[in-house]
Design a protein that fits this description.
Shape: globular
Helix content: 10-25%
Radius of gyration: 20 Å
Number of strands: 9
Largest sheet: 5 strands, mixed
Length: about 150
Amino acid sequence: MTMILRSSLLAVLFILLAPLQVIAEPLWLVTPEETLKSNSAKPPFYPRVVPPLDAPVIDVITPKLDGSITSPTPILLKFVPKAPANVKPESFKAYYGTFQIDITNRLLGVAQVTAQGINLKEAALPKGSHKITLNVQDSEGRVGSKIIEFEIK
């Protein structure tokens, strides 16, 4: 095989296989730089707010927040509305860290939000402490919120 033909064949294979490498990698919800900046910033003052009566509940099924978490990790959230209301999946928002970086679109890029919740096979997070605020609204206009804090080992 000539050198030019071999080079051309390798280039074509690289172009065809490159998208597979992207698919195989888990989603980075936040970058190491975002984690470092968030963890080194002074936390802002947030007044304690009582959630509206009968607001939807956000249950974190996985990862288990009471133990050691490794990255990448699956994320499974379950939304529990108070009947007769329904969860409005389009209202879902996720904010990261001290600066409340909106990571909603990062999640929506790889997982679908339904009225029942979210199922993400793998989400990568850098080692360190993390804080994510989750919000979802129901058909009655009540907003349920959950702050999850965990450490990636």
